[in-house]
Amino acid sequence: MNAQPIPSLKAQLRREMTARRDALPEAERERITEALVERITALPQYAAARSVLATMAIGSEWNTRLFLDRARADGKRIVLPRITPPPRHLELHVVRELDHDCVPGVWNIPEPHPERCARVEITDVDFAWVPALAVDLDGYRLGYGAGYFDRLLSGRTASTCCVAALASAFVVESLPHEAHDQPLDFIVDERGTRRTRGAKP
After folding, report:
1. Is residue 121 part of a domain?
2. Rounded CA gap, 101 and 172, in Å?
């Protein structure tokens, strides 16, 4: 019997992980998010960062607004991605006011207004909370399938610390991955923080 193709495996896992996250009570998601933000901001790589990247959460995602507000209070420069018109890819922009400089983008995700927010490159980012449905101990993440973040992160250097932050139920031993997938440096969950086996030196 032939092994199931990796794209098919990923699609199945996405459905399973999304359903598992959607099933979490809102109070539990809030409790976990607060723990994640406390652990992320305790990292020395975060403390040293001048600029931080995250996405604006939608649906049952972990509430990254808590992290972004904390980063703003800590004097960090906030960077958010936007999905460009076709051929779609991620562009990064500095956002000064989250409530005024963002507009609904693809899938209604709040994104920086490209005319009001200065564009930067991934090499200008010191610290990134990268979205993930799940992550494995090598740092490979299960994303939403478009490949936007893997293409973006392929251009980073070791000076950009990349973190997956999510509940421990979504941290697994191994995920299917392909040559273009980019491993992250740290995994943060409500129980602790660990450096991944695939972290950049």
Report:
1. yes
2. 36
